[in-house]
Amino acid sequence: MPTITLAPLRADGVSVVYGDRRVLTDVSLTVAPGHRLGLIGENGAGKSMLLRVLAGAETPDSGTLSRPPRTGFLWQEVRFEPGDTLAALIEHALGEVRGIERELEAAATALGSGDPAADARYDTALAAAERAEIWSIDARRDELLDGLGVGGIPLARRLGEVSGGQRSRFALAALLLGRPDALLLDEPTNHLDDEAAAFLERQLRSWPGPVVFASHDRAFLDAVATGLLDLDPARSGTTVLGGGYSDYLSEKAAERSRWEKQYADEQAELKELKHAVDVTARSIAWSGKVRDNDKFVKSYKGNTLDRQISRRVRNAEGRLDDLRDAQVGKPPAPLTFAGIPSGFQVLGDGSGLLVQAREVRIPGRLRLDELSVAPDARILVTGANGAGKSTLLSVLAGRLEPTAGTVQRRRGLRVALLEQDVRFADPSASPRRIYAATMGERRAETVPLTSLGLIAPRDADRPVGALSVGQQRRLALALIVARPPHLFLLDEPTNHLSLALATELEEALGAYPGAVVVASHDRWLRSRWSGGGVHLA
C-alpha cells in the first residue's frame, strides 16, 4: 500500500488590500506537518484575514499559496441557521469523510473488474480512509463532544436553542472529527473552560498535519505553539519566531530596543549632517592676513580652501541623501490602554454595599445563594460553561430579573456591562460617530475617543462593520471607560483583545476607582487575580 506523505502549508509574499487599507503585506510562511504556528498581533493586524486566505475563503491581491487537499477551517463565529440541528452541523462537517467512504466502497468494487489500475486506486482510497479514521467516527465523536464539555446535549437540539459558546464547541468538535490534513483555527479557546482547553491542547499536540491558529490565550500559546508569527509592524515586516510565548516576549522587547536605538542614532546623525551642510562647512573661510603684494598666495590658498569646503559639503550631502533613503522608520507608538479618566468618584461616601443578591434562581441558568458587592470590590466569577456566569452579570446589571430571590441595588448606582458578543445597530457608522452619539458632544471633546488608546486614529472614521471583532470590542470598552460606572461588569474581557491590551486592561482594572466583577475562563488572568471570587457550579 502506498504511503501518503502529508504536505506542508505554505504562503509566499501574500498581500491583501481591504477597502482603503492594506491588511497584509508580503507575508510568507511554511508550516510543516506536525508543527503548530500561532498567529499573534494587534486587533486588525490581519490574523483572521490570513487564516481566511490560507483556507481559500479569501483571494489575496498578490502572492502564492499551497495547502494540503483537505484543509479544515474553524471560523471565529459559527455560521449556522438557527433551525439546523446539532446532528446536521456535525454531518455537514463530515462531508469530505463521507466522500472518502464512498470512494473506498467504489474502489473495493472495482477490484474485481480487471482494471489494472484498480489495485492502486484501492490502496490510495484505503490510505485516505485510514488517515481520516473513518471506522472510529462514532467513538471519536463521543470522545470529542465529552472532551469539549458538550457531550450531554442531545444532538436533535437546534442550534438556536444552545448558547454561543456551545455552538462554537460543537463546530470545533465537528471539525476535529473530520480529521483534515491541515487545521486552521481562529480563536479556538474563546469559549472553552480549563478542562476543554487542556483537552484541545492534547488533540493539537498530537495532530499529524500542519496547524495554524490565531489566539489571544497566552497559556494556550505556550502549551501548543511550536512557533509564532507576529503580524505587528516591524522593520523587517512580519516576524517568525521559534519557541513559545515567553520566548517571544523576550525577543519582542529586545527587537523593540534595537529598533528604537537605531532610529535614535540615525536621527542624530541626520541632524549633524544637515548642520554640516547648512552651517558648519559654509561658515569656514580662509582668514589668513596677507600683504598687498601677496595676492598670488591669497588666491592660491583661497581657492584651495574653497575646494576643501566644496568637497566637505558634497560628502555631507551625499551621506545625508543616502541616510534619508535608507533610514528605518520610526517605531510605531504602542496602542495601549490609556487607563481610567481622572476625576471619577465612588458612589456616595464609599460606604455600604452597591449590590446585594440573595437566593437568586433562574431555572436551568443560575443558582446563587448570596453575593455582596462593595464599592471597591474585585470579584472574579468562575465556573464551567453553562454554570451561569454571563447570566449572573446580566442580573447584576439589571438586564435580567431572577425568577426567585432578591437583588438590592444602591440608589443612583451606575452599572456598565462589557458583553462577550458586541453588536452595533448601524454597521455603516464610524467609531467616532458612535462615540459622540453615546457620550454627547461635550464629553466626546473632553475625552476624545483616540485618547483612550483603544481605537487607532486610522480606524476612528472607518465603518464599524468593516472593523474586526476585536476592534469592535475595543470600541465597546471605550464607550464604558469614557464614562466609568460605579460597577464595572466584564464578561470574558480578554476575548478578542490583543495580548498586549489584555495585560494592560488587567493592570488598569486593579487600580479602577469603582467595583469590578469579571467573569473569565482566562487561565493567565485567573492565575494572577488578587481579589475575591465566586464559583458557580
What does this 3D model show about the protein?
- The protein is α/β, with parallel strands linked by helices and 537 residues long.
- The chain has four domains: 1-69 and 183-233, 3-Layer(aba) Sandwich (Rossmann fold); 81-180, P-loop containing nucleotide triphosphate hydrolases (Rossmann fold, 3-Layer(aba) Sandwich), CATH 3.40.50; 256-326; 355-536, 3-Layer(aba) Sandwich (Rossmann fold), CATH 3.40.50.300.
- The protein has 16 helices and 17 strands.
- It has helices spanning 47-55, 86-93, 95-110, 118-132, 137-147, 164-177, 194-205, 218-224, 245-283, 295-326, 389-396, 431-439, 441-446, 469-481, 499-510, 523-527; strands at residues 9-18, 21-31, 36-40, 62-66, 71-74, 182-186, 211-214, 227-230, 239-242, 355-362, 366-373, 378-383, 404-409, 415-418, 487-491, 515-519, 532-536.
- It has a six-stranded mixed β-sheet, sandwiched between helices. A five-stranded parallel β-sheet has the order 14-15-16-12-17, with helices on both faces.
- The chain is flat and about 100 Å long.
- 34% of the residues are buried.
